[in-house]
Structure formats: structure tokens, C-alpha cells
Design brief:
about 210 residues; alpha+beta; 6 helices; Beta-lactam/transpept-like; Peptidase_S12_Pab87-rel_C
């Protein structure tokens, strides 16, 4: 029975509403309590028990009784561990405040904008965790904007930095991978990162406003 799940690439092969029907229809392969048998379907039964006794789903109970009390803001049972799109929106400055990368949200689409230039707007697509990619569908799109087409895959990745309290406070872009493989950090305007420590200013830097 485990192969229903193992061979489905972690897709939900049997919906929740049909799971108990499936379990009740299984044929015993060993005498009851006669030998230890392991099967992941036990977790499915547990989820039904939790729902019946608490009125919450398994994921809701974990969130409300474990993750929230422990302030585990970046932990959950969902497949996408990135934060809500709006949390990434802002202006990000390099350590001397001369180069800025803007992140905007338009009609549900995150976009990255280099130096605020209209012809340097690229859609961001979630990759994993807090990493996004702005790689176009084809190299032709890159060439049509006068960019080189031989950049490494890391060039098209944007990794957002998250503070201890779960706030997006920076991004890292590996734009010179052959010289600076760790990439360059850009700090989000208005966060603790954009303060005196990084820029020698008493107040957080004020970047250009997003239109």
C-alpha cells in the first residue's frame, strides 16, 4: 500500500474523503496483533482521529498548538515555505547605497526591477524556500534586451534573507559568480539591516519609491 504514495512523486493519490474507505477495504496480511507491521496509513488514521476529536485538521493542529506557540514563523506543513508574496516587496540597496533592486507585486505576480529601469523588469518565480528565479523562458528574451546569454544558473537566482523574527530583510544576487561566488547582499529599506551598521547612518536609508 505504501507504493500508492511512494510512486506518486508525493502527489495526493487518494483524497482524504476516500482514505477510510480504502483502509477499511484492505485485506489483512498477518494475524491481528500477531506480528509488527509498519505502514504509513497509520498516519492517515491519526489525522481522522484528530479531526474528529478537535475539529481541526492535522496541519491546523500542528500550526496552532506547536508552531505558533513556539513562534516557528517559517515552519509549516504546506509545500511552499516561502512567505506571502507581499513580504518580499520593497527596495533593496547595496552596502554603499548606489545600486538598488526593487521587488514589486502586480496582479499577483512578483517582479524584480534592476535600478528601477522600465526595460529591466523581470517576473520572479518561486524556486525553493526563499529563493526565486528570474530566468526567462528563452535566451532570446535575454538577448533581445542586450544582455549576455552565457550566465550561469546562479545568476538568475535571488535568495532572500530572513531575520530571526521571520521578516524579509535582504536579498543576495550572484551577479559576478566567477569573482564573488557568494554574491552581493542588498538590504531592504526600512529594516534593521539598512541601519548605521551597514551604511553609517543613524536612520534606515530611504530608497526610491515603487510606482
Amino acid at each position: 500500500m505504501n507504493n500508492y504514495w511512494l510512486e506518486s512523486n508525493n502527489n495526493i493519490a487518494i483524497p482524504l474523503k476516500d482514505s477510510m474507505k480504502l483502509i477499511n477495504g484492505l485485506k489483512p496480511v498477518k494475524p491481528f496483533r500477531g506480528q509488527l507491521q509498519y505502514n504509513n496509513l497509520s498516519y492517515e488514521i491519526a489525522s481522522h482521529v484528530i479531526k474528529e476529536l478537535s475539529g481541526q485538521t492535522w496541519s491546523e493542529m500542528l500550526q496552532s498548538r506547536l508552531f505558533d506557540p513556539l513562534e516557528m514563523k517559517r515552519t509549516g506543513t504546506h509545500e511552499n515555505f516561502a512567505g506571502p508574496d507581499k513580504e518580499y516587496v520593497g527596495v533593496y540597496l547595496n552596502h554603499v547605497g548606489t545600486v538598488h533592486i526593487d521587488v514589486s507585486l502586480t496582479d499577483g505576480q512578483l517582479n524584480i526591477i534592476f535600478q528601477g529601469l522600465p526595460d529591466e523588469v523581470w517576473p520572479l518565480h518561486h524556486w525553493e524556500h526563499d529563493i526565486f528565479t528570474w530566468l526567462p523562458e528563452s535566451r532570446d528574451a535575454v538577448a533581445s534586451r542586450g544582455r549576455f546569454t552565457f550566465q550561469s544558473p546562479d545568476y538568475y537566482k535571488i535568495k532572500f534573507g530572513i531575520s530571526d523574527d521571520g521578516q524579509v530583510e535582504s536579498l543576495t544576487w550572484i551577479h559576478e559568480g566567477w569573482n564573488v561566488p557568494e554574491g552581493e547582499d542588498f538590504f531592504k529599506v526600512g529594516t534593521q539591516k539598512a541601519t548605521q551598521k551597514e551604511f553609517g547612518q543613524q536612520e534606515p536609508l530611504q530608497g526610491p519609491k515603487l510606482s
